[in-house]
Every structure is written in C-alpha cells, then in structure tokens.
DNA sequence: AATAATTACAACCGCCTTCAT
DNA sequence: TATGAAGGCGGTTGTAATTAT
C-alpha cells in the first residue's frame, strides 16, 4: 500500500484510468481463448463482463469478451450464409425499422445483429441499388430524383440551373465511377482525356446506365430537357477537365 | 503464377441508456 | 439529483479469403 492510501491522488487516478495496453489483448480470438470464455460462461453464466476476462484467465477487456460471446460463441447462433427468404425478411424489416439491427435480429432467431448488419452492408444494399431502389428510403431512385429536381430545388430562386447542376453531377459522377477508366494524377489530364474520348459509348453500352437513364428521363422532362442522354454526354465531355481535377488531380490515389 | 481488386465478416470504437448508489 | 459502472447499439475498420485480371 502506498503512503497516503485511499486519499492519494495518484492512487485514485490509477484506479479510475484504463489499464495499460499491455494488460489487454486485441485482435482475433484464438481457439484457446474461445475455450476459456466458453467454459467460464457455461459455468457462471453471462453478466458482469468487466470481471469476466480476469476470472476466465483471459487478457481481454469485458467488452471484447461480451462481444465474442454474443456474436460468435453463443450456442444458439446459426452460422453460415443467409437464405433468400432471410434476405427478403431483412429487406422488409429494414424498410420498417431502418438500421436498428438489434430490433431486426430479435425477429430472426439464430442471427446476430452484427451478422445482419454485415450482410446488409456487403450484399443487400448493393442489390437494391442495382434494382434502382434507394437502400435508405426503399423508394425508387427515379422518385427521389423527381422530388429533388421538381420540389426541393426547382421552386427556389435560380432553381433551374441548380437543379440541372445537381442532376448532372449525379449522372456524371456515376458514369465516371462505374466506367472502367481509373485515372491517377500521374496519368495526367491529356492522357486521361484520350482514354475517355469515347466515354459516351461506355455509358451507352453499360446496361446499368441505360436503367439509370430510364430513372432520369422524367426528371429531365420536368427540367425541360428534350433528350437527357445527349445533354449529359455534352456536359460530360465539356466538363471533363473539371471532373478530373476535382476527383483525381489533388492526390496520387487511384479512382474508386 | 503473380498481382490486384473485391468481398465477407470479426472486432473495435465511441456514444448512449439504464441502473445502482 | 448526481455520478459512475455496466451493458448495448450502430458505425466503421482491418484483414483473411476469394475472385478477377
């Protein structure tokens, strides 16, 4: 015991501060650690996670132990890929509850909130986008574009130009992002331009873009654009230097 | 066969809520 | 009522495995 005992400020600070890093292991769990934690919980049950690491002979913090048990070791967890029925249920529940994963998991026995969240972020979100559905609102993208251009923006001063600009940015960024062209700052603008001289053909030949044009058509009509495709192509070629500079000109990173 | 890109998922982090004192 | 511990949640990151080039 140090001189000063309970009242010593240094002692108080040490008790309140987190333990030094060397006392706590991080990263992937080993099979031995899993066995220790499983044996401890089977013998003592869950709860009081803060002390579990120590009592189970693990150099892990309580949070880490709890997470490992609830997301992986719990015996009622069903591991393995999601069935199509489960995927449909997740989409349905997400439309109702949003990203309240614990709520969604409660309606899917055997699945953890972490698993569902991961599956949503890696698979389902993309699938909805490909179907032309916004994964946040679960509404068709065409409907959202329409709202954006005709209601949110188009009724304010200087609206038409703003709406056109917003609309074109969305299309152009998508076209560049989804094309096979991956320029870098070291490529240089001139060679990038030569690579994309026929970018409109990439856009037209890409079936996803065709679908995107379908979504865009009613918005274009609302803005008084007779043919959105030619307008976007003109915009894209005209604004290529600007797009290149804003996206890739400031770093050596490749385009994502 | 080697390398790059993408995918899948375990784990961490920070914040919030609840509860006991 | 204020405070701190504990548990829970959602967002994000790191990385191993897989697939594409």
UniProtKB/TrEMBL annotation:
It comes from the Eukaryota. Residues 21-73, 74-124 form the Myb-like domain. Residues 12-25 have a biased composition (Basic and acidic residues). Pfam families: Myb_DNA-binding. Residues 21-73, 74-128 form the HTH myb-type domain. This is Uncharacterized protein. Residues 1-25 are annotated as: Disordered. It comes from Sphagnum jensenii. Keywords: DNA-binding, Nucleus, Repeat. Its main location: nucleus. It is found in: Nucleus.
């Amino acid at each position: 015991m140090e001189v000063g005992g309970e009242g010593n400020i240094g002692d108080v600070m040490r008790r309140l501060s987190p333990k030094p890093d060397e006392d706590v292991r991080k990263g992937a769990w080993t099979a031995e650690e899993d066995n220790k934690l499983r044996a401890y919980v089977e013998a003592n049950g869950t709860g009081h996670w803060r002390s579990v690491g120590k009592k189970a002979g693990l150099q892990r913090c309580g949070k880490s132990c709890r997470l490992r048990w609830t997301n992986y070791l719990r015996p009622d967890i069903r591991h393995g890929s999601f069935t199509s029925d489960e995927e449909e249920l997740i989409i349905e529940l997400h439309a109702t509850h949003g990203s309240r994963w614990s709520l969604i998991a409660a309606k899917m026995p055997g699945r953890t909130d972490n698993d569902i969240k991961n599956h949503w972020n890696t698979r389902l979100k993309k699938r909805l986008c490909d179907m032309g559905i916004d994964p946040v609102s679960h509404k068709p993208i065409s409907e959202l574009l329409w709202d954006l251009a005709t209601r949110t923006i188009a009724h304010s001063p200087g609206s038409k130009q703003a709406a056109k600009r917003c609309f074109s940015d969305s299309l152009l960024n998508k076209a560049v992002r989804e094309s096979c062209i991956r320029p870098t700052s070291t490529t240089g603008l001139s060679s990038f331009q030569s690579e994309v001289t026929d970018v409109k053909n990439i856009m037209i030949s890409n079936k996803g873009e065709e679908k995107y044009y379908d979504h865009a058509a009613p918005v274009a009509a609302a803005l008084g654009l007779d043919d959105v495709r030619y307008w976007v192509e003109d915009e894209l070629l005209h604004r290529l230097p600007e797009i290149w500079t804003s996206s890739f000109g400031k770093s050596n990173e490749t385009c994502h």
